[in-house]
From TrEMBL:
GO terms for molecular function: guanyl-nucleotide exchange factor activity; small GTPase binding. GO terms for cellular component: cytosol; membrane; trans-Golgi network. Belongs to the RAB6IP1 family. Residues 36-579 form the UDENN domain. Residues 798-947, 1131-1276 form the RUN domain. Keywords: Guanine-nucleotide releasing factor, Membrane, Repeat. Residues 951-1059 form the PLAT domain. The lineage of its organism: Eukaryota, Metazoa, Chordata, Craniata, Vertebrata. This is DENN/MADD domain containing 5A. PROSITE patterns: DENN, PLAT, RUN. GO terms for biological process: retrograde transport, endosome to Golgi. It is found in: Membrane.
Length: 1283
């Protein structure tokens, strides 16, 4: 059509044509044989197995405005391994492969190449090959006949001690001549040549047919009906792209070619066979690869077939709908560009295999976060700590059903012969010992057997009813079909598989719009400050998700593809603004919402199968293949448009001569320029069709596939049209925000360009480090602010762990960038081990201590390494590196350790190339500075992750300074409890009062039980505090006491439960600023401060006591409203400072009558008298039944605590009673009971709180709020009580 409104009709019409270029690559006889040194081939191979430089011999037309021809990139990708030579005894079957050129802005151009062999007619080339063989045979002869000479004393001794080699000259030479020779007089030499189509959109099936028919015309003894120029001219200038939702038929040399394109409400165009990927890898491996791609890991595909690399790469990215891969994407990496594997960024690349080297011989720059896929051998190697895709087993089963319906095995076709043997041995040995490979035995065997049996029974049942059953649905052919049956089956299977995958994201993100954070400012301002803004409420979204989804979703929400998807949503408010993928996805989400209007679905882990296929298909009973989608069926049975047929061109006499076996030199004068007018469109497209679809074609450019929409001509053609392309600018720029370099250039391999590319990598790594540290700090500090009463919580344990894992991945990529020689899978751990010997003798200064009672740990990089090495649960270098990073972060030493690691400049120069990130001094300093900011927050990323490891702890009991423990004669003991475990009773040496022990990780420490056995002459001990330190993390906990332990002193307790908290590193003068003041002090000491006299003003103190209890209850309520994994210590809220026990002590001590001289009266004494009075028969008769039940319950608890074998004293018993009452939701009953007891009137002043009926009712209402929560007590608090 003409470009209305833009004044460039010819430009618009030609930019929509099927192919932009036709290219011929091969041997340039003028330049001769040029070895391809960049391909990395071994020159010890025979000349026929070496690679030589190929060149672009011709391309037509010379150039088009909307897609400039990139000769270097096209030349490398058409023949990635260069020229190949064969003789008449070798296989010379044509090979088809496709490729993609992704520009730095993300736009794509597709290429489709057919490589075949032509006889070499140049005598100079044949003579050169003969000379190379003479030289090669001479070198091999010398190697076979020359024994290795000794180079030193050790070699000399070894040389004389070993038997001399036996020479077999004649057999070796004959073997060389027989199998690896070329004789110009006897052999025919063939060289590879490639013909290629460069297209704006991917139609591999159609392009394959076009190229195969062109090659068939050359190979056929009879000339084609028309010169080849006519067919090439037709495909270049007279065949348009099919519009959205339409099909197109055009003519090849020997038959028609059909291609079709989805409509704007269908999934985007995809013409590769997805079933091929499942056939090569199997369902389980595909799903593992899919997970790695979604989490933006480095993915390396490995195969000796270029088309397999392209097919797997394109298929896995197509299944990501509605998300799009945002990073480096090179499905076929030319041999000359292997240095791109050093890129410290996420990538998806395909590496060609020669079919001889196995995985162990392949040295890759970095493997810590690498997903390696050996396509030919049905094998995938996964990175560590890969989360499982949600509902993995159900998802596998649904995909398998689709594959079985199309006659495909869910496990794929396992390679045969040697590869199959290797695969079997791998499965039988390695898979059992290494679960990370993702190649575990399939759970589908029993399912498929059952499914086949069910189908057989259904077949038998239908036959008995007299109905006809078609055993093979593919045997039926619709005569109206305009394409091959296999091609139709491919399209059909693609739709079904893609619908199943799309359904998973539709279900998982059905309510994603609710959590999109819409900007309050205009788009220009939003884009300017994009780095500082959050576009999605991740914490709220994750809080709504089922628990099994969180490990995957928390990491997926951090990816660039998800951020770009949300950016597109923000920038496109209206349907007409939306990208095609977003528009289709939102339509599916809306459909789910409509179905769930009556019964809104709860977020559960229940698997919901795909229903789009069944709804759109035609119901056919017992059809083994899913029904054909009507839109596909219509497009392939009724062709919407037929292009112009090829025709004779205005060629000179003698041009276009046919010569069998040789692709002719085409006539550039007729192929360089197209028609001067757009006649093909007017002549071939019916006027009615053009009028009917003018508006549709005008609008479809908004909903083109991403590949097409991002091409340059899109912006140029419709610049002046009344289309909304304003958001496109921001969408593209927003995508580029997260990645400094999206795609390396495949052309111009000059040193300056390579250096510039590496500099972009360095800048990108620094920017990523800055963004990650900022994100982690904001999230972490935001959570700590909540604990202080400010803001809202915005981070979960899963999300925090995800951010730290992402940081570990970044460090691995930084340490892998520019590495000279890789020594292990983890470059960071390898560097640490290398530096271990250098730093092991150095004594580093001490860190700030957690308290003067315990000497501080030394700050030692080597000691932290040894701690990690001693953890037997960590088996791999990658795991050790990540554990070391977590430990360093928890100790707030990450920046300091890495700075010390990089302080040996000579070693750094030896290990890394000049362009490496770690050798860029300014960037390295900024990087360390960013990591230093982590010291501002507390992380427990080591303690909370490695929960089963053995950790040494050091305990010190600190006696009172005034009354030292020198006279103490009893034997003390301690029992340390944490969030994860408890130690049991540990005896402490009496003369040392400290002990070091090793036990399983206790987690964050919560309580210490300490006491003594009351032996000796002076069994009384005044303890100031107990200090406990984790000897690996260095965390020191202080458990204040300030009480006596002994009979006849204080409350007579022989053991106490101490509640503590983590000490912050402080100086001696600033010790008062410690955030962990004494948690539990003597009730006698407390009474002297809080007990009031009768003459005091009561109202002020009454309000104070009720407020104290309200704050304690409020702390518990807040605890339970946090996510379960983010709750702190409930023991601290119950028994710590300002906790529930302390608050109730204030309530009971208020107005308590002063005890008689020289006699201490405790709250427990008052409770005991109340219990005795309540159990008297006269009191019981006067109470109603409910009141009697509460009295009996209270007395039962009192008796149980009094009868315990523990010597916890009266205050300890009161604490236990409060904890049990809170657990069983009885405290408000007991307060009411005690307030009405006559004993209260005897032991309290008239102004006491317990005598004020209105305040007592207020206390009861406050305590009743605890009934909403299930309080679980730590075992140490209720030990010895069987209630």
């Amino acid at each position: 059509r003409s470009g209305t409104g833009c004044g460039c009709g010819r430009f618009c019409s030609t930019s929509c044509r099927f192919a932009d270029y036709f290219v011929i690559c091969g041997l340039d006889t003028d330049s001769g044989l040029e070895p391809d040194e960049l391909s990395g081939e071994n020159f010890e191979q025979s000349p026929l197995r070496r690679t030589f430089k190929s060149k672009v011999l011709a391309h037509y037309p010379d150039n088009v405005e909307w897609n400039p021809f990139d000769q270097d990139a096209v030349g490398m990708l058409c023949m990635p391994k260069g020229l190949a030579f064969r003789t008449q005894v070798d296989s010379r079957e044509p090979q088809f492969h496709s490729f993609i050129i992704t520009r730095e802005d993300g736009s794509r151009t597709y290429g489709f190449a057919l490589t075949f062999f032509e006889e070499v007619t140049s005598k100079q080339i044949c003579s050169a090959m003969q000379t190379l063989y003479h030289m090669h045979n001479a070198e091999q002869y010398d190697i076979l006949h020359t024994p290795t000479s000794p180079k030193g004393p050790e070699d000399l001794h070894r040389y004389h001690s070993q038997p001399r080699p036996v020479l077999h000259a004649a057999p070796s030479i004959s073997r060389l001549q027989r199998f690896n020779s070329y004789d110009i007089s006897r052999d025919t030499l063939y060289v590879s040549k490639c013909i290629c189509l460069i297209t704006p959109m991917a139609f591999p099936q159609a392009c394959r047919k076009v190229l195969q028919q062109l090659h068939q015309a050359v190979a056929c003894p009879q000339p084609p009906p028309l010169p080849l120029e006519s067919y090439i001219y037709n495909i270049l200038y007279e065949v348009p792209l099919p519009p959205s939702g339409r099909s197109l038929k055009f003519s090849g040399v020997y038959g028609p070619v059909v291609c079709q394109r989805p409509s704007t409400f269908e999934l985007p165009l995809f013409d590769f066979a997805i079933s091929e990927m499942f056939n090569l890898l199997g369902v389980e491996n595909v799903l593992q690869l899919f997970t790695c791609a979604l989490l933006e890991m480095q993915i390396l595909l490995y195969s000796q077939h270029y088309q397999r690399l392209m097919s797997v790469a394109e298929s896995i990215t197509a299944l990501m709908f509605p998300f799009q891969w945002q990073h480096v994407y090179v499905p076929i990496l030319p041999a000359s560009l292997l240095h791109f594997l050093d890129a410290p960024v996420p990538y998806l690349m395909g590496l060609h295999s020669n079919g001889q080297d196995d995985r162990t011989k392949l040295e890759l720059p970095q493997e810590a976060n690498l997903c390696f896929v050996d396509i030919d051998n049905h094998f995938i190697e996964l990175p560590e700590e890969l989360p499982q895709f949600p509902n993995k087993l159900e998802f596998i089963q649904e995909i398998s059903e689709v594959l079985v319906s199309f006659g495909l095995s869910p496990e794929g076709n396992i390679p045969s012969s040697d590869s199959q043997t290797k695969y079997r041995s791998f499965r039988s040995v390695d898979m059992v010992s290494d679960k990370r490979n993702g190649n575990l035995a399939s759970p589908l065997h029993s399912y498929l057997l059952k499914e086949n049996e069910t189908i057989a029974r259904l077949q038998a049942l239908v036959k008995r009813t007299g109905l006809e059953v078609k055993e093979d649905p593919s045997s039926y052919k619709d005569p109206r079909l305009q394409c091959d049956e296999e091609e139709l089956k491919m399209h059909n299977s693609n739709i079904h598989i893609r619908e199943v995958f799309a359904n998973r994201f539709t279900q998982m993100f059905a309510d994603y719009e609710v959590f999109v954070i819409q900007p309050s400012q205009d788009k220009e301002s939003w884009f300017t400050n994009r780095d500082q803004m959050q576009n999605f409420d991740k914490a709220s979204f994750l809080s709504d998700q089922p628990e099994p989804y969180l490990p995957f979703l928390s990491r997926f929400l951090e990816t660039q593809m998800f951020a770009s998807f949300i950016d597109s949503k923000i920038l496109c408010h209206d349907d007409e603004d939306k990208e095609h993928t977003l528009r289709v996805f939102d339509a599916r989400v809306d459909k789910i919402r409509m179905l769930n209007v009556r019964t809104p679905t709860l977020r559960t882990s229940m698997y919901q199968r795909c229903t789009n296929i069944e709804e759109s298909g035609k119901a056919q009973i017992l059809n083994f293949v899913f029904n054909i989608c009507p839109s596909i069926e219509m497009r392939v049975t009724k062709i919407d448009h037929t292009a112009l047929h090829p025709h004779l061109l205005d060629m000179k006499i003698g041009q276009g001569r046919h010569e069998q076996g040789f692709f002719p030199r085409l006539q550039s004068d007729v192929l360089s320029t197209g028609p001067t007018s757009n006649k093909w469109a007017k002549r071939s497209a019916p006027a009615q069709w053009r009028r009917r679809d003018r508006q549709k074609q005008h609008a479809e450019h908004l909903y083109l596939d991403n590949d097409q929409r991002e091409s340059p001509w899109y912006h140029l053609c419709y610049f002046k049209e009344s289309l909304v392309i304003f958001p496109q600018k921001y969408i593209q720029e927003a995508r580029n925000l997260g990645t400094t370099i999206r795609q390396p250039k495949l052309s111009n391999l000059s040193p300056s360009v390579i250096a510039q590319t590496n500099w972009k990598f360095v800048e990108g790594l620094l920017k990523e480090c800055r963004n990650k540290t900022k994100r982690m700090l904001v999230e972490k500090m935001g959570r700590e602010a909540v604990e202080l009463g400010h803001g809202e919580v915005s981070i979960t344990g899963v999300e925090e762990n995800t951010l730290i894992a992402s940081l570990c991945d970044l460090l691995e990529r930084i340490w892998s960038h520019g590495l000279q020689v890789k020594q292990g899978k983890s470059a960071l751990w390898s560097h640490l081990e290398t530096c271990g010997l250098v730093f092991s003798h150095q004594l580093l200064r001490k860190s700030d201590g957690g308290g003067s009672a315990m000497p501080p740990l030394k700050v030692s990089l080597i000691q932290d390494m040894r701690h990690i090495q001693n953890i037997g649960e960590i088996k791999t270098d990658v795991g050790k590196a990540r554990a070391w990073v977590r430990l360093s972060m928890e100790k707030k030493l990450l920046s300091r350790h890495l700075k010390q690691l990089l302080s040996d400049h000579e070693l750094t120069k030896k290990l890394y190339k000049r362009y490496a990130f770690l050798r860029c001094d300014d960037e390295k300093e900024q990087f360390l500075y960013h990591l230093l900011s982590f010291n501002a927050v507390d992380y427990f990323c080591f303690t909370n992750v490695f929960t089963t490891i053995m950790i040494p702890y050091h305990v010190v009991a600190v006696p009172s300074k005034k009354l030292g423990g020198s006279m103490f004669t009893a034997n003390p003991w301690v029992c340390v409890s944490g969030e994860l475990a408890e130690t049991g009773v540990l005896q402490v040496p009496r003369n040392m009062l400290e002990i070091t022990f090793e036990c399983q990780n206790l987690g964050k420490l919560t309580t210490v039980q300490m006491g003594h056995d009351n032996t000796g002459l002076y069994a009384k001990w005044l303890v100031e505090c107990v200090m406990v330190r984790n000897e690996i993390t260095g965390h020191t906990y202080k458990f204040p006491c300030g009480r006596w332990l002994g009979k006849g002193v204080d409350d007579g307790s022989l053991e106490r439960i101490l509640v503590g908290e983590l000490m912050t590193p402080t100086t001696e003068n600033d010790e008062r600023m410690c955030r962990t003041p004494p948690m539990q002090q003597s009730p006698g000491m407390m009474r002297r401060f809080v007990t009031i006299s009768p003459n005091s003003k009561p109202s002020k103190f009454l309000i104070q006591e009720t407020t104290i209890l309200g704050e304690a209850i409020n702390g518990i309520v807040k605890h339970f409203h946090k996510p379960e994994k983010e709750r702190g210590s409930l023991t601290l809220l119950l028994c710590g400072e300002f906790g529930l026990v302390w608050a109730l002590e204030q309530v009971f001590q208020h107005g308590f009558k002063s005890p008689r001289l020289f006699k201490n009266v405790f709250i427990w004494d008052f409770l005991g008298k109340d219990c005795s009075h309540s159990e008297t028969p006269s009191t019981a008769i006067s109470l109603d039944e409910n009141w009697q039940t509460r009295v009996r319950t209270f007395c039962r608890f009192m008796r149980a605590i009094n009868s315990t074998s523990r010597n916890i004293g009266k205050d300890g018993k009161f604490q236990m009673l409060v904890c049990l009452g809170a657990r069983d939701h009885l405290l408000h009953y007991w307060i009411a009971l005690l307030a009405d007891c006559p004993i209260t009137g005897q032991m309290y002043e008239d102004t006491a709180l317990l005598k004020d009926r209105s305040l007592v009712n207020s206390l009861i209402r406050v305590l009743q709020t605890l009934q909403d929560f299930n309080i679980t007590l730590e075992a140490s608090l209720v030990k010895g009580v069987g209630i």
